[in-house]
Amino acid sequence: xxxAQNWKDYEVIxxxxxxxxxxxxxxxxxxxxxxxxxxxxxxAREWQRPNGHYHRSSKGGGEWEFFKLPKEWxxxxxxxxxxxxxxxxxxFSFKHTGLFPEQAVNWEWFSSIIxxxxxxxxxxxxxxxxxxxxxxxxxxxxxxxxxxxTHVDASKGMIGWAKENAVASGLAxxxxxxxxxxxxxxxxxxxxxxxxYDAIIMDPPSYGRGPKGExxxxxxxxxxxxxxTSLLLSKNPLFFLVNSYTTGLQPAVLSYxxxxxxxxxxxxxxxxxxxxxxxxSTGLVLPCxxxxxxxxxxxxxxxxVS
Length: 306
Hints:
There is one protein chain. The protein is an alpha/beta fold. It has seven helices and 17 strands. It has helices spanning 104-120, 137-145, 156-168, 183-193, 218-230, 251-266, 302-305, and strands at 2-3, 10-16, 19-24, 27-32, 52-56, 62-66, 73-78, 84-89, 127-131, 148-153, 176-180, 199-202, 207-209, 215-217, 239-244, 269-278, 285-295. Strands 1-16-17-15-12-9-10-11 form an eight-stranded mixed beta sheet. A five-stranded mixed beta sheet has the order 2-3-4-5-6, with no helix packed on it. The longest helix is centred in the middle third of the chain and has 17 residues, at 104-120.
């Protein structure tokens, strides 16, 4: 498992009875988590005095209950690859805060690839495409490492939020192209234009609909989408990353998809794993989905595969 264990402003304090107890900077949140199927004693005192608690409804969805929680606050991520990123947080629809902290383990991975490549080829312009890019964690990590990033998300609100994070992280003038667009349609237009990228990141939803009602169901849509998107890789690509929070897309499935779509064209190496967050109270790891990684044939160091 790949574990995001370099956070200082975030931690999972405990988990029990379908919920996780988290510290986000100075504030404590309780949120539902479908992976937490165990019922263990809630010994951590923070369970008794959270700043926010998302209550799941039996009819679907749910609502927040707040206790002295600001409408917005910030946390910082400083990782092993000299990342120094600031994220604005705010509780919003369906339990989210605007950040998936487990993704930090992937930020570290591809940041090291970008930095190592630029050390070997200092004049190279590395172009990264980030699809379903949300509030910009991966975009800012790639830009901070020295890449030129195209950030694509269908939500104008998420793009605005990502731009705020860029400003807060000192990356207001970084070479980032912000695009509000349907990711599948954008990929098709880029293929027709003959555009290419040295690296591609995607974090597709499990389910959704396009602007004209097009159905996206990840189990049916992800393989053809990876195939089409791989056509945008340059002649000298670096990496391809696919994230999934869908239970059916286990690491071995992601590995098979990426290997089938990319390795026959470009060679390279594929690896996939669950990603997770350490739990303070137990020393165990909370699983948080899976990631599949492709890396081109290049010298692979320990930090590339960690």
